[in-house]
Amino acid sequence: MKLEQMPRYPLLCGFTPLQRMENLEQALGCGPLYIKRDDLTPLGLGGNKTRKLEFLLGDALAGGADTLVTVGGVQTNHGRLTAAAAAKAGLACTLVLDGAQPEKLSGNLLLDCLLGASLVYTDGRSTSAVIEETLAALQAAGRAPYFIPEGGSNAVGSAGYLAMVPELLAQAGSLPVPPARLVCTMGSLGTFAGLWLGARAFGAPFSVTGVAVNPTTGYTREKAAALVNEMSAAYGLDIAAAPQDMDIIYADAAHDYAGPGYNVPDAKTRGAVELLARTEGIFLDPCYTAKSFRGFCDIARELDGGAIFVHTGGTPALWTQEHLDAFAADYWN
């Protein structure tokens, strides 16, 4: 099926902004540097999952679903936007959250509750088993659930970022210096895979680099190439990818962008949040985008040409209890 033939539920309102970061250029001594503001998508406080959910929701509705079910961490951004998309489309939503219920309500969990999502915590049980139990219970109750994998990162959801590339190229076409690199967060591979395939399919002047935000991630280059190839076959693009083609920066001795652990507060990540806030008035989140932004800054310093950072959202993470406590230690004394 061609990309344009895919069922799609409209959640966007035109292009998200592409902005130059001139103050950051001065701070880093390089440029030109741009930021693609997918944190400003109009649904549920914004974020990259909105693009994926246009295709996932379209597929769910085409199949007669009445309930969206997805999985993620306790403070999942994807879960929050899935709940928002379900509310917009008049569907129910259940979130399977990988962990125990926190003592205090904060961040995305408050938004999940406001959006009417049902929350199911794994609380030490097998995540896959809890998902199966949840789907079975919904079916037994007469519901028609549609399951969305972590991050919406399958061939359907990742089409959102394949489809985003022409939008970005239309914006970048008027730039005085063509961007040589596009840098994005790599969490569950979908955004990266869609952008990588889109760059090849639409003849982009930039290469795509993903920065891993989990130091122990299981989302390997092999899995990235497999997702790209699945999408290429599904949408008739005849583009093949090999693991060595996947430009993903993983945690190692030379690259500590992912920090000490997934969603674990650290000073360098908080420093990246502060840098962009104080140069451009734009907020990053301490779980995802601040980590990849650190990688972007290092890439930009070494690059001969322009670069674009894709801001994938996640702002509510600033108000999760663990990160509030960490920021309080820095500022509130």
**How are the strands of the biggest sheet laid out side by side?**
1-2-10-7-8-9
Poorly predicted sequence stretches spanning 5 or more consecutive residues: none
Q: What is the CATH class of the largest domain?
A: Alpha Beta
CATH architecture of the largest domain: 3-Layer(aba) Sandwich
Number of helices: 11
**Helix-strand string:** EHEHEHEHEHEHEHEHEHHEH
Q: How many domains?
A: 2
Integer-rounded radius of gyration? 19 Å
CATH topology group of the largest domain: Rossmann fold
> How far is the N terminus from the C terminus?
58 Å
Determine the structural class based on helices, strands and strand pairing.
alpha/beta
Shape: globular
Cofactor: pyridoxal 5'-phosphate
Family: Belongs to the ACC deaminase/D-cysteine desulfhydrase family.
Keywords: Pyridoxal phosphate
GO biological process, one term: alpha-amino acid metabolic process
Give structural notes.
This is Tryptophan synthase beta chain-like PALP domain-containing protein. By secondary structure, the chain is an alpha/beta fold. The protein is built from 11 helices and 10 strands. It has helices spanning 22-28, 49-62, 77-89, 107-114, 127-140, 159-172, 190-201, 221-234, 267-280, 289-302, 321-331; strands at residues 18-20, 33-37, 67-72, 92-97, 118-121, 145-148, 179-186, 207-212, 248-249, 306-311. The strands form 2 sheets. Strands 1-2-10-7-8-9 form a 6-stranded mixed β-sheet, with helices on both faces. Strand 4 (92-97), helix 4 (107-114) and strand 5 (118-121) form a beta-alpha-beta unit. The longest helix has 14 residues, at 49-62. The model has no long low-confidence stretch (mean pLDDT 97).
